[in-house]
Write a structure and sequence with these properties.
single chain; 377 residues; alpha/beta; Zincin-like; four-stranded mixed β-sheet; two-stranded parallel sheet; 11 helices
Length: 377
Amino acid sequence: MAAYGLYTHIQSNKRRSVALLIGLFVLVYVMVFAGALLAEAISVNNAPLDYLIQAAFYDFVKAAPFATIGAILWILIAYKFHQAMIDAVTGAHRITRAEEPRLYNLLENLCVSRGITMPKLRIADDDALNAFATGLNDSQYSITVTRGLMAALDDREIEAVLGHELTHIRNGDVRMLVIAVVIAGVISFFGELVFRLFFQNMMWGGRRRGSGDKKGGAGIAIVIAIALIVVAWLLSVVIRFALSRRREFLADAGAVELTKNPDAMISALRKIENRGELTSANSAVMEMCVDNPRTGFSDIFATHPSVDARVAALVQYAGGHDPGPLALDAPEDQPQIGSEAEGDGGPWGTPPVSGTPGPWGDVPPTGPVPGPWGPRR
């Protein structure tokens, strides 16, 4: 089940990141050519299709440098300010050890124990149970945790979630997701710009230049241009959904390798299950989260495998135990699991006694209680 620092996955993500950036410019150029073809089709009267395509290509050559500069500027803005934009959407803010010692110490201990560069830590004031990582390099990497997650999970479970996000950072998943979101943003911007210009020209009268008695091909040119724009936009969306769901299984496995506690990752997933929807976040942010639930037909486009599938993998390969769906209906001020006095069931009921049958079958005997971060090898 070892996955943390998995070399082949890291190398694959690096190659994909480069390919995504190259694909970004290809899609932008497709958009520019489609826009030029639309402009020629609505401004030239009775021109044949081959003439319109040649004229559009000439316009494309002139516009390509400006499109390149625009795409590069977009990337630079995203590189510099993507965290500020995400914070604005989610209401997250950076915290220090003095403000949140419990959360800060959990992350610091994980990083120190394995020699990992500690990312920045943020909290989103949201009741949802979720967390996500952002950033493009070591100086930018950041992990955001919601207030709801902190209130509902005990220390071992929070540590498992932090280990999950650390694995995403180490494996290059975070960088690749940010790049994919940037691509979708650029293509959406160019696509909307082209369509706006097209409809404005149509409203203002359109065709102005003549081309003799040549047979008209404007209708076909418009259809081709619109098809190119739609295909480019769809490809930008597919890029986001085509990112392998396998990354979540590997991040779960990495959390287990870091904490040596598969049950903590399983119980964290069960508590997060169906409670992770961030009210203010858009789909791009949700794709970065621990869980991004989709049901029914929309599951075709899911960026995450189901919690059931992830738990089943942890049970099969890491030897964890699945408690099934968990209810969270206790007040926040009750003690957490692991901190209650003997005989006190805590906020989520009384834990079954070792060796006695519980609601999900016999509970295996346990040894000494591990520390707050699980046993270390």
